[in-house]
């Protein structure tokens, strides 16, 4: 490979030198004076012009010294493990069991049988003489004299009617005073039947609608008469009405005038 490169370099150098020589010859030719002006000047051509250039000095490749061979370290075999001899535990010393001396035999004492107990005969007491109780004759039953009622049935009926009339007038007055304005503007009319229970002190309980008017506004207004305006209270029963409670049904009418 080195020789081939040297040949190529030599050929290239020869071509370069020939080119230079021809260029110089041409230049000298042009500068040659005319015969009548100056004598002819001859430039000598030497072999040195055509000599091959010296070959480049090839430096020798550096000598690579081989790496020193590293000898492996000798393998040190481990010393064999010497297992310790098992410790032999001494056998436990078995102490002899103590000699148990037998207990002395105690002879039982002779059993002395008790003498039989003679129970005394029971004393029989005489039964007491029961005297007969005296016969008590019942007292004659005295019938109470009939008490005349304070009020006649006519008085009771009249008092109940007056009480119901007063209640109906009160409910009618509240119905007209609480007629919902929006129901009046819409022309809503109707009659609501409400059942309730009156106590003797005039308290009103168990209020419910049993027949609706068909209009929610009128039904709610009728219930508000008892709950809001009357506060579930009316006047107590008069003494002619001997009742603890009285269940009644009344109509509340909403009618445009």
TrEMBL record:
Residues 164-257 form the TonB C-terminal domain. The keyword Repeat does not apply. It is a single-pass membrane protein. It comes from the Bacteria. GO terms for biological process: protein transport; siderophore transport; transmembrane transport. SUPFAM superfamilies: TolA/TonB C-terminal domain (SSF74653). It holds the Pfam family TonB_C. PROSITE patterns: TONB_CTD (PS52015). Keywords: Cell inner membrane, Cell membrane, Membrane, Protein transport, Signal-anchor, Transmembrane, Transmembrane helix, Transport. The keyword Protein transport applies. Residues 70-141 are annotated as: Disordered. GO terms for cellular component: outer membrane-bounded periplasmic space; plasma membrane protein complex. It is found in: Cell inner membrane. GO terms for molecular function: energy transducer activity. The chain crosses the membrane at residues 9-29. InterPro entries: TonB, TonB-dependent_transducer, TonB/TolA_C, TonB_C. Interacts with outer membrane receptor proteins that carry out high-affinity binding and energy dependent uptake into the periplasmic space of specific substrates. It could act to transduce energy from the cytoplasmic membrane to specific energy-requiring processes in the outer membrane, resulting in the release into the periplasm of ligands bound by these outer membrane proteins. NCBIfam families: tonB_Cterm. Belongs to the TonB family. PANTHER family: PROTEIN TONB, PROTEIN TONB-RELATED. This is Protein TonB.
């Amino acid at each position: 490979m080195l020789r081939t490169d040297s040949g190529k370099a030599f050929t290239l150098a020869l071509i370069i030198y020939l080119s230079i020589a021809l260029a110089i010859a041409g230049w000298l030719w042009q500068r040659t004076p005319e015969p009548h002006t100056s004598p002819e000047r001859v430039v000598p051509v030497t072999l040195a012009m055509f000599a091959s250039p010296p070959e480049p000095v090839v430096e020798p490749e550096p000598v690579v010294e081989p790496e020193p061979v590293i000898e492996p370290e000798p393998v040190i075999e481990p010393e064999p493990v010497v297992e310790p001899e098992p410790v032999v535990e001494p056998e436990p010393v078995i102490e002899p069991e103590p000699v148990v001396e037998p207990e002395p035999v105690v002879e039982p004492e002779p059993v002395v049988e008790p003498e039989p107990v003679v129970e005394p005969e029971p004393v029989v007491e005489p039964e007491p003489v029961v005297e007969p109780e005296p016969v008590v004759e019942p007292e004659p039953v005295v019938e109470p004299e009939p008490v005349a009622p304070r009020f006649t049935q006519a008085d009771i009926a009249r008092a109940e009617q007056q009480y119901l009339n007063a209640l109906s007038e009160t409910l009618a007055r509240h119905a007209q005073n609480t007629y919902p304005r929006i129901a009046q503007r819409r022309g809503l009319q109707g009659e609501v039947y409400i059942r309730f229970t009156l106590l003797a002190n005039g308290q009103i309980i168990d209020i419910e609608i049993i027949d609706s008017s068909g209009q929610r506004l009128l039904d709610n207004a009728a219930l508000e008469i008892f709950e809001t305006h009357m506060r579930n209270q009316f006047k107590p029963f008069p003494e002619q009405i001997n009742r603890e409670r009285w269940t009644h049904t009344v109509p509340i009418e909403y009618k445009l005038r």
